[in-house]
Amino acid sequence: MIVSRSASPGSGRHKTVVIADDSAVVRGLFARWLGETGNFHVVAVAGDGETALAHAGRFKPDVLVLDLDMRGVDGPSALPHILRESPHTSILLAATLNERNTRLALECMTKGAMDLVSKPDSRAGMTLSLDFRSEFLLKLGNIAQSATQPGTLPPEVDLGWPAGHTDLRPLVWAMPRYLLIGASTGGPRAVARVLFDIGDALRDITTLVVQHMPPLFTASFAEQVASHVGIPTREPFDGERLARGTVYIAPGGRHLGIDRRLGHIVAAISDGPPVNFCRPAVDVLFGDAARHLGAAALGLVLTGMGSDGTDGAAALRQAGAAVVAQDEQSSTIWGMPGSVVRARHASAVAPLDEIGGAIRALLRGAPPA
């Protein structure tokens, strides 16, 4: 079905959208909400993956909203074909979350989907929830703009290593014993890539990850990372002594910090208020690490919208730790890392495909590539 709107799809102000969902009610709601903003042009809707694929190939939309559960070809099956037909289309997943859909959504996000919005369980929740409507419009708007709004940098900001040079050693005062990673939109794929590239050198350090995710996601994300990198990965409990050779994922909806108790570095899990509208928040982890770890920490800020991690990066730098930011070109959204760079808190800026190898070389003392 083709949906007409008064705005021109070629307008520089309006972003083109295809909505793929097996519910006609949901398709209608999404189309109406987007039309009311005046910023989007819904060029087509689809009730199954096959039709979504056809529309993606025809319209090459800026954004495609993709339901996971559809008749015939479902969202996860259609996703790789959609990205092949329209590689510049950003994918926003939409699904009612349960254990199965959580695993499927994570798989999709590691294969190219940018973000997910969790649909309410009931039709009433879908139509009456202002929070859901706001989240849907915010996430769709952010990913629609990410590819067309380049970041601006202040003068004299170091944009990273020269080509072919990835030696982190001049940036650190001491060999790091803790790797701290913060990420949001596009993060599951980026985090998995970095950890995979570091490989068995992860056994030499303790790794803590704050990925902005709801509660159902983080346990499944930990399982996915463990199977991907072959390193023990789990959500820590409050007071757990942090062990080398383990990756700890912040529990969804709770802050992950660091504390020193009885002479040991332990995980500090809390239900404190959101920081930068986020819980878990990267700033909480980075701030605690600055206090308790100092130069023994290495911070890494990956793709994500917003500015979470900027204040924490400043604290890490003041404590003698290095902070690496993902570059704009390889980021899904250059919000978080871009904020760190613009604030001049990044020790280095690098593309995603170089970061893991550089950290591995640092930990193993290998000569730079």
From TrEMBL:
EC numbers on record: 3.1.1.61, 3.5.1.44
One Gene Ontology term, aspect cellular component: cytoplasm
Domain named CheB-type methylesterase: residues: 172-366
Pfam family, one: Response_reg
Protein task: Involved in chemotaxis. Part of a chemotaxis signal transduction system that modulates chemotaxis in response to various stimuli. Catalyzes the demethylation of specific methylglutamate residues introduced into the chemoreceptors (methyl-accepting chemotaxis proteins or MCP) by CheR. Also mediates the irreversible deamidation of specific glutamine residues to glutamic acid.
PTM statement from Swiss-Prot or TrEMBL: Phosphorylated by CheA. Phosphorylation of the N-terminal regulatory domain activates the methylesterase activity.
Reactions that this protein is recorded to catalyse: [protein]-L-glutamate 5-O-methyl ester + H2O = L-glutamyl-[protein] + methanol + H(+); L-glutaminyl-[protein] + H2O = L-glutamyl-[protein] + NH4(+)
Entry text on domains: Contains a C-terminal catalytic domain, and an N-terminal region which modulates catalytic activity.
Localisation per UniProt entry: Cytoplasm
Organism field: Bosea spartocytisi
Key words of the record: Chemotaxis, Cytoplasm, Hydrolase, Methyltransferase, Phosphoprotein, Transferase
Active site feature: 184, 212, 308
SUPFAM superfamilies associated with the record: CheY-like, Methylesterase CheB, C-terminal domain
Name this protein carries in UniProt: Protein-glutamate methylesterase/protein-glutamine glutaminase
Modified residues (4-aspartylphosphate): 67
MF (Gene Ontology): methyltransferase activity; phosphorelay response regulator activity; protein-glutamate methylesterase activity; protein-glutamine glutaminase activity
UniProt xrefs under InterPro entries: CheB-like, CheB_C, CheY-like_superfamily, Sig_transdc_resp-reg_Me-estase, Sig_transdc_resp-reg_receiver
NCBIfam families per record: PRK00742.1 (NF001965)
Family: Belongs to the CheB family.
Gene: cheB
Domain Response regulatory: 16-134
Gene Ontology biological process terms in this record: chemotaxis; methylation
